[in-house]
Write a structure and sequence with these properties.
231 residues, three-stranded antiparallel sheet, 11 helices, disordered N terminus
Length: 231
């Protein structure tokens, strides 16, 4: 998930319309909110390093089976992402990081859809317009459609993935990647204070999904141009 979307998703839930930001301890006390942070962070950290390779066309960012995604497609989608972020926040976002995340989402979405079809897993979710309205995104935008497809197929696979007990390294990884109100969770509370939330109930499903996705990607016919990094 791109930094812009992570901020939009988390910030909209955590914002307090009643006034100034609440104390850090109170802001991170909600199990529901921390679960969302953990799930986003763990799945977004899925490594694609073993898939970086280049086929014949240097203008292609990624191949997934017979589908190919050109640099132009990635650039247009990144421009949509940046346009959805308030002007005062755009300076905090690295376009290169957004490009990598867009490629990540395209590859994961397509490979997961192919796996779901082969395994007879039903992929269903809210219709695109309802999905877009909830997130205040334009339904006609290619990024909105990408996010919708990515989210719905991951939800479908989550129901099939066996939860995995988190190690301390897993807990720290989720903690270090999670954001709240657009800022690192690590700035809101120390690890020791929130570690209890990063248990198997919280992290187990996301870790199980990441494990399944790793297996799906390793079996898929995928290659990503090295300029798009390994995240």
């Amino acid at each position: 998930m791109s930094p812009a979307v992570a901020r939009r998703e988390i910030g909209s839930e955590a914002a307090d319309p009643r006034g100034p930001a609440r104390p850090a301890r109170e802001r991170v006390s909600s199990m529901h909110r921390v679960r969302r942070l953990a799930s986003i962070a763990v799945v977004a950290a899925l490594a694609l390093g073993g898939l970086t390779a280049c086929r014949s066309d240097p203008s292609v960012a990624a191949y997934v089976g017979s589908a190919r995604y050109t640099d132009d497609t990635i650039v247009r989608t990144v421009e949509e992402v940046l346009a959805s972020v308030p002007a005062e926040q755009r300076g905090q976002i690295r376009p290169a990081s957004v490009r990598e995340q867009v490629v990540h989402m395209l590859v994961v979405r397509d490979a997961a859809r192919a796996y779901a079809k082969a395994e007879g897993i039903t992929v269903a979710g809210p219709d695109l317009r309802a999905f877009a309205e909830e997130r205040r995104l334009p339904p006609e935008a290619s990024f909105t459609q990408l996010l919708h497809g990515y989210s719905t197929v991951l939800d479908a696979l989550s129901a099939k993935a066996a939860p995995v007990a988190p190690t301390e390294d897993d807990q720290r990884e989720a903690y270090e990647h999670a954001q709240i109100q657009g800022q690192p969770l690590s700035q809101a509370a120390p690890f020791a204070e929130v570690r209890k939330f990063f248990d198997q109930q919280t992290l187990g499903p996301a870790l199980g999904l990441r494990k399944l996705l790793g297996e799906v990607l390793s079996d898929a016919d995928i290659s990503i141009h090295p300029r798009y990094g390994t995240t």
